[in-house]
Design a protein that fits this description.
Elements: H1 4-15, E1 32-37, E2 40-41, E3 47-48, E4 55-59, E5 64-69, E6 78-83, H2 91-103, E7 106-110, E8 113-117, E9 123-128
Antiparallel strand pairs: 1-2, 1-3, 1-9, 4-5, 5-6, 7-8, 8-9
C-alpha cells in the first residue's frame, strides 16, 4: 500500500486541481440571467457569474454583488455575499433575489439553463445570456 501513496497523490494533483463547483460543470464563462424565482417570472434583471474559482458575482436589480461559492457540484452554497448599497425602485426584488440565492443548496446545468434549488422546494431558474 505504501507504493500506492505516491500514485494517489499524483492522481489527486492531476484530477483535484480543477474547479469542482457548478462553474466547473458548465456554468463558467457565462452570464446567467434569472428568469424564474419559486415558479414565478422574475420581472427585474438579476445576473449570476462565476468570475473565478470559488467566487460568484453579478448584478442584482439595484446593486452589484459578490460572494464565495466553494461547494462541490451538484451542491451550491453562496456565502459571504456583499453588495453595494444603492437604493432603487426594485430594492424589494433585490432583497428577494439575494435572499433566495443564499438559500440555494443544489445546482444543475442543462445546456443554457441553470437551476438552483433547495430541499424546502425553493427554485431559481437562470438562462445563459446570448
Amino acid at each position: 500500500t505504501m507504493r500506492l501513496l505516491p500514485l494517489l497523490a499524483t492522481f489527486c494533483l492531476l484530477g483535484c486541481t480543477g474547479d469542482e463547483t457548478v462553474a466547473g460543470y458548465g456554468a463558467a464563462d457565462r452570464v446567467w440571467v434569472l428568469e424564474e424565482l419559486d415558479g414565478t417570472p422574475f420581472a427585474a434583471r438579476a445576473t449570476l457569474l462565476f468570475p473565478e474559482t470559488g467566487k460568484i458575482a453579478g448584478e442584482a436589480p439595484c446593486n452589484r454583488y459578490s460572494g464565495v461559492m466553494t461547494a462541490p457540484y451538484p451542491w451550491f452554497g453562496a456565502t459571504q455575499v456583499v453588495s453595494t448599497k444603492m437604493a432603487c425602485p426594485e430594492l424589494e426584488a433585490e432583497t428577494k433575489f439575494l435572499g433566495a440565492l443564499t438559500a440555494m443548496t443544489l445546482s444543475e446545468v442543462l445546456g443554457d439553463v441553470m437551476i438552483l434549488s433547495n430541499d424546502t422546494g425553493r427554485e431559481m431558474v437562470f438562462t445563459a445570456a446570448e
